[in-house]
Specification:
The complex is a heterotrimer of chains A (164), B (291) and C (853). Chain A has 5 helices and 5 strands. Chain A has helices at residues 25-32, 88-96, 105-118, 124-130, 142-157; strands at residues 4-10, 13-19, 51-54, 57-60, 73-75. With 291 residues, chain B is of the alpha+beta class. Chain B has 12 helices and 14 strands. A 5-stranded antiparallel sheet of chain B has the order 4-5-10-6-7. Classes of the chains: A alpha+beta (164), B alpha+beta (291), C alpha+beta (853).
């Protein structure tokens, strides 16, 4: 099995390891780095459960090879909380009863964080459009949209609102 | 659902890319964003023996306005850039308007404009946009550079005029003339899906008269399709609802879209006509002189 | 509210979820996250053909592939396992016994042909590509119509035909009633194949203890105990003879079994007496070997040294699909035992869409005998279910027809009712329970009521109100038998929904929209569902089924005062840890943070045949937990009474402080009481208090009801349907946690919207599945699902436990409300909606905008 070296920053730390070139970024994150908070729902880029932040932008970790992340800065759900203080999106989703089974949750949180970083005051329709790349089978989405709206309010009252 | 084995190449320059393609030809695939290629590999519908990752090649990510006539997008210009670049919005507004229709945000972060064109999915936006805008594909190989007009580029389902040793190094869009207007419209089952039918249209107008029109449909065949019959109906005519209705009818009878589990042939025909009227109306509502 | 204390009053509040601590931070633990040391990875070779004989299979190249550890063919697995036996027996039913994997014949695209175990899933999939199989294609059976044809190829040879179940139930003098009514209106409805599609696919990790070979099975299952028993029964090498010998010679084992069996018979005497032997006769008339098979299984279990431990962790949704014991699980367990190493299989999405569970494909012919004024007289239904190839296990389509039979009359008065139920086998993926597996009774009836109203030029709401069972009629019974008491509050929900929708205002809105070329329609649908139903309800499904209703719970208080509650419920999104803690905290008078729920581990949780499903969580699981907490509270109070030198009835518990009424300052903590109790018992390790209670729900557990109402807007140029307003008025009794209930309702409605407008497990004429990726199986996104208004009525029931289930209702009501609204919107074009699946093409065809080309 041929492997190649890859190095990138993830959740504030730097990692260097060897991977088979065909290994997806999602599998590398979950299995090589042990960050199982990123989930695989379809492995062909539709469900969005594997969404991570790649240099601050949302990306499907199942649709990238690990080697493509060379030099990138990656954030996963495990990197959202700041010194044990939950991210406002996490607080908001808890308050809103945003999710049920929790499987789609990591992808939604990362997409929502990316949205709020760019647009701190999205309309409900904008939230729907931006989160439409993430599938949830439990909730009918309303509680998730509600959660993003709560996060908008929380972020407006915290000083480090742009943090991702 | 895991990707099959391949030999991985990570060249740092265009020359290295071209040497690799010359060496491996049919056995090699260029990996840009991978948003179309990697899912096909995960489903084991594609299994190239060599993957040439162009992600480290410098210069491919640029959008350039070399001369006033063309805007050039390098092989690594992401779809999100096409959506947000003010240069593209001004000089190639069709791409700018079409980009938000491509899948979802997380796909556009990584997916490239050239990759989408080279992949040539007949239901995708970018190939139709290239066709409507009269873009030029710049193919490079160790044998040199070929410029291929959009009209000659799309040959069949996922099949283009690129030879096995060539890569789509850049795509050039003619800078949008002041006399032109445009619209991109599509209907999909869900937000972000491939279109059941879509239309990218460019209409050039002089004094309320259409001087030239390009109607490039996607989702209606094995390639993006221009409907010359309808374009001829429009050319030289005064803008009017009746004219648009006539063009819509011509479109409906000219196209022979296929049926699949998402829509029937009759539906797609009808929808293509509806979209023709909607696109022409949207493209020209701000223009006076309509009868 | 809790009768016992009610002091902390958590029940009824939208308290935040305990589960979210881990699920919002990426610390959930799903089966894909379980990696025992040295675990190997499995991938299945699945049939590319719908129906074929396997002529030859060659796995030599695959065995040599890099990273591949073992390859098993269907024949290999057949040698290591016993076939799945027919469990559910009904008059008129033949259930084929079937193997974990196929040795000789494949019966659908995706059927299991070989299993590769390798160092990684990547290597396992590489191995699959090297397996050579020669198939001899057989004519596929692709539709209900083909299955009914006497010349169609047999999916199951012993069945002698492709109709596996055929039974007619009659209530009242149907012929006389139909002859006497003013008119008979008939329509045929067709529902398409759909799929549960939880975001987490199926998955199982068989962990093999390297020292003693004990299996620990980590699985995304709705019922860990059922999985444990079935794996124990179908795998393992012990021969029947040695099992018998072991059973005879091992006195302790024999006595243990006899004691347990006596206890079971005592506890379930009434249910066991009611079992109908006609079902067994029907089964054995077609396959005499199956009685041998079942007995061999039983004997195998008797001699089993070591049953596996099943552990379920967090589960990413199921919607019924994970109530199945998967054939894959049996093959994996056999493979892991054989090679002596842990094996992990995480189903991929293509596998899930082809073989992870499909549902709902049913044809229904409905006739209603009705008087000119809209009074219902009689109802006749002929229903045919396409179960696909393999029977569901432990329950499948034939069982669901019994629920459909009972529930078809709905909340209305009828003088007579007849239903013929048939289940056919085809070469498709298997039919499983999907959120309200009987839901098409509601769809067909409520669709038909609109057809009747339109035919008679009456308003659909008026026809419903006219025929619906009113509170003043109660107590009464459905024509199919089950008792109807005040919990059947459908009419109250309908009345409220009509107020909310304001049909007159809607007509104005409709007119002004029509002037702009927008077509609006209003649709309603009403139902009551057994959530999970009174005793006689289950009896009417199948005599003796009440066996399933009993559930146990264990409540303990440790020496440090920690309260731990054990449930056989298997939560997978329903928030049991939160809602059960609310119930227990209220019963015990403690903060909910003091309560911990244990579930999913068969070594720790009480046995149940079921698990989580059938809207049983709150009523049955919650009922058991409530009863166990009440009993443990009594023990705490008695111990405290001794310590405080007071009478137990004078003891109060407030916020964890156990004290004599009126003297809170001299109270005791749970820890102090537990410590004292432990000292008294001289026990050091046991919990201080430990109660296991059984809850049967014989007199509680009534109905949940709802009316769904929605407005649709149709674009006649594109065929796209929008839902600008969706209202649910529901009644599940006292709501434990309103946010949880709203979430269940909305999630169900979203699946109903998906069913009508987006989702279809399409098959072509040769039974090839057409929607095997998420590019083609369209789960609606946040852009397609509107905000949904949920209104609660909270009718109390007279029983001990008045929580009623809410998990399934959203999905039951939505397809009918939406299709009714669509027909209403297309009424100007004379459209008659008889298909449940209405993609844009179908909408434009119904409006005669396009033809059928």
């Amino acid at each position: 099995m041929t492997t190649v070296p890859v190095a990138f920053a993830i959740n504030g730390g730097r990692v260097e390891f060897r991977v088979e070139p065909r290994r997806t970024l999602a599998d590398a994150i979950r299995d090589d780095l042990g960050l199982s908070g990123t989930h695989l729902g379809c492995e062909h880029g539709v469900c969005g459960a594997c969404t991570i932040l790649l240099d601050g932008q949302p990306a499907r970790s199942c649709l990238m090879l690990a080697v493509q992340a060379e030099g990138a800065e990656i954030t996963t759900i495990e990197g959202l909380a700041h010194r044990d203080e939950p991210h406002p999106i996490q607080q908001a989703m808890r308050e809103a009863h945003g999710f049920q089974c929790g499987f789609c949750t990591p992808g939604f949180l990362m997409s929502a964080v990316a949205l709020l970083a760019e647009n701190p005051a999205p309309t409900r329709d904008q939230i729907r459009a931006e989160l439409s790349g993430n599938l949830c089978r439990c909730t009918g989405y309303q509680s998730i949209i509600d959660g993003v709206e709560i996060a908008v309010r929380l972020l407006a009252t915290t000083s480090d609102g742009a943090r991702t | 659902m895991k990707i099959p084995r391949f030999d991985y190449h990570r060249p740092e320059s265009l020359d290295e890319v071209l040497v690799l393609l010359a060496e491996h030809g049919d056995e090699a695939k260029v990996l840009a964003g991978g948003q179309s290629l990697l899912p096909m590999m995960a489903l084991r519908l594609a299994a190239p023996a060599h993957l040439v990752d162009i992600g480290r090649v410098r210069g491919f990510e640029t959008v350039s306005l070399g001369d006033a006539a063309e805007v050039t997008l390098g092989a690594l210009v992401r779809q999100v850039t096409a959506e947000r670049s003010p240069d593209i919005a001004r000089c190639a507004p069709l791409i700018h308007d079409a980009a938000p229709h491509i899948a979802h945000r997380a796909i556009r972060t990584v997916g490239t404009v050239c990759g989408s064109i080279a992949h040539a999915d007949p239901a995708a936006e970018m190939p139709a946009v290239a066709l409507a805008a009269g873009a030029t594909m710049v193919a490079k190989s160790t044998n040199g550079t070929r410029e291929i007009a959009a009209d000659d580029f799309f040959l069949g389902y996922l099949h283009t005029a690129l030879r096995a040793d060539e890569m789509l190094a850049e795509v050039r869009f003619p800078v949008w003339p002041a006399t032109a207007t445009h619209a991109v419209v599509e209907v999909s089952r869900r937000h972000g899906d491939y279109a059941l039918v879509g239309l990218a249209c460019r209409v050039e107008i002089d004094g309320g008269v259409i001087t030239d029109a390009a109607l490039a449909f996607f989702g209606v065949g094995t390639t993006p399709v221009r409907v010359a019959e309808a374009e001829r109906v429009l050319a030289g005519q005064q803008l009017s609802d009746d004219l648009f209705a006539e063009a819509a009818n011509v479109v409906s009878v000219s196209l022979s879209p296929g049926a699949d589990i998402h829509a029937s042939t009759g539906y797609r025909r009808r929808l293509a006509g509806v979209l023709t009227r909607r696109a022409l109306t949207r493209a020209t509502t701000h223009i006076g002189g309509r009868t | 509210m809790s009768a016992a204390s009610g002091l902390s009053g958590l029940v009824g509040q939208s308290v935040t979820r305990v589960e979210d601590d881990r699920l919002l931070t990426g610390r959930g633990r799903y089966v894909a996250d379980v990696d025992p040391p040295g675990v190997l990875h499995a991938a299945f070779l699945r049939s590319p053909l719908a129906h074929a004989r396997i002529k030859r299979i060659d796995v030599t190249a695959a065995k040599r592939a890099p990273g591949v550890v073992a390859v098993f063919t269907g024949a290999d697995i057949a040698r290591l396992t016993r076939p799945f036996p027919p469990l559910f027996m009904l008059p008129g039913l033949y259930t084929p016994s079937f193997p974990a994997m196929c040795a000789d014949k494949v019966r659908h695209v995706g059927d299991l042909v070989a299993l590769v175990v390798a160092e990684s899933r990547y290597a396992a999939e590489d191995g699959l590509e090297l397996i050579e199989v020669d198939y001899e294609p057989l004519p596929p059976v692709a539709s209900i119509a083909q299955a009914l044809s006497p010349t169609s190829e047999l999916v199951w040879e012993r069945a002698g035909g492709n109709v596996l179940y055929d039974f007619t139930d009659t209530f009242g003098d149907v012929d006389a009633i139909f002859a006497a009514a003013d008119r008979v209106i008939t329509e045929r409805f067709s529902c398409h194949r759909q799929s549960n599609q939880p975001m987490e696919t199926r998955g199982t990790v068989i962990e093999v203890d390297p020292d003693d070979g004990h299996l620990t099975v980590h699985s995304a299952t709705q019922s860990s105990h059922a999985l444990r028993w079935v794996i124990a029964a179908l795998t393992g090498k012990r021969s029947t003879l040695s099992s018998l010998r072991r059973f005879v010679t091992d006195t302790e084992r024999r006595r243990g079994f006899i004691t347990a069996a006596r206890q079971f018979i005592r506890d379930n005497a009434q249910e066991l007496r009611r079992q109908d032997p006609a079902g067994m006769r029907a089964q054995f008339s077609k396959d005499r070997t199956s009685i041998v098979g079942i007995n061999l299984l039983g004997i195998g279990l008797l001699g089993k040294d070591d049953y596996p431990t099943v552990k379920a962790h967090d589960i990413g949704g199921a919607f019924g699909s994970k109530a199945q014991v998967a054939r894959e699980d049996i093959a994996l367990a056999a493979a892991a035992i054989e090679i002596g190493r842990s094996v992990k299989w995480i189903e991929d999405r293509v596998e899930n869409l082809t073989d992870g569970g499909q549902a709902r494909e049913e044809d229904l012919a409905v006739s209603i005998a009705v008087d000119h004024d809209g009074t219902f007289r009689g109802l006749k239904v002929d229903i045919i279910i396409d179960q696909g190839a393999f029977p569901g296990f432990p329950a499948g389509a034939p069982g669901f027809t019994r629920i459909i039979k009972t529930m078809l009359p709905g909340s209305y008065h009828w003088d007579a009712f007849e239903v013929r139920s048939r289940v056919v086998a085809t070469n498709k993926g298997k039919y499983v329970a999907y959120r309200g597996p009987w839901a098409n009774e509601t769809w067909a009836r409520e669709r038909m009521i609109d057809v009747v109203a339109r035919t008679l030029r009456l308003s659909p709401a008026e026809v419903r109100l006219k025929n619906m069972i009113d509170e003043s009629d109660m107590p009464t019974a459905m024509i199919t038998g089950p008792r109807v008491d005040e919990t059947m509050s459908t009419k109250k929900t309908l009345t409220r929904a009509i107020e909310l929708m304001d049909p007159e205002a809607f007509e104005n809105e409709r007119r002004s929209a029509a002037a702009e070329g927008r077509y609006l329609g209003l649709g309603m649908a009403c139902y009551h569902e057994a959530a999970p139903g009174h005793y006689e309800y289950w009896d009417s499904i199948n005599p003796g089924t009440n066996l399933l209703l009993a559930e146990r719970a264990r409540a303990t208080v440790d020496r440090d005062g920690a309260i731990v509650v054990y449930t056989p419920q298997m939560p997978h999104g329903q928030s049991h840890e939160t809602t059960f803690a609310q119930i227990v905290a209220d019963e015990l008078g403690v903060p909910r943070e003091d309560v911990r729920l244990v579930w999913g581990d068969t070594d720790k949780t009480p046995f149940t045949i079921g698990g989580t499903g059938g809207s049983r969580g709150a009523p049955v699981g919650g009922g058991a937990v409530r009863r166990a907490s009440r009993e443990v509270r009594q023990l705490i109070v008695e111990q405290a009474a001794q310590m405080l030198e007071a009478a137990p009835e004078d003891i109060d518990v407030v916020a964890g402080n156990v004290h004599v009424k009126g003297v809170p300052s001299r109270g005791l903590t749970f820890a102090e009481i537990a410590h004292e109790a432990t000292v008294a018992k001289r026990a050091r390790t046991e919990p201080a208090f430990d109660v296991t209670s059984t809850y049967r729900g014989h007199t509680d557990c009534g109905w949940s009801t709802a009316t769904h109402a929605c407005i649709v807007e149709i674009d006649l140029e594109t065929g796209l349907v929008k839902i600008p307003r969706y209202v649910v008025v529901e009644d599940c009794g006292p709501v434990i946690n309103p946010a949880v209930v709203d979430g269940q309702v909305r999630g169900g409605v979203a699946q109903g919207i998906g069913a009508v407008l987006y989702e279809h497990c399409a098959y072509d004429d040769a039974a090839n599945p057409q929607a095997t990726t998420y590019m083609d199986y369209l789960i609606p996104t946040a852009m397609e699902i509107p905000d949904i208004e949920v209104h609660h009525l909270e009718t109390l029931s007279p029983g001990e436990n008045d929580f009623r289930g809410i998990g399934e209702g959203g999905m039951i009501g939505a397809p009918a409300a939406i299709t009714n609204a669509i027909e209403d919107a297309l009424a100007p074009f004379g459209a008659r909606v008889t298909d449940q699946y209405l993609p844009p093409t179908r909408i434009l065809q119904l409006a005669h905008v396009i033809g059928h080309d």
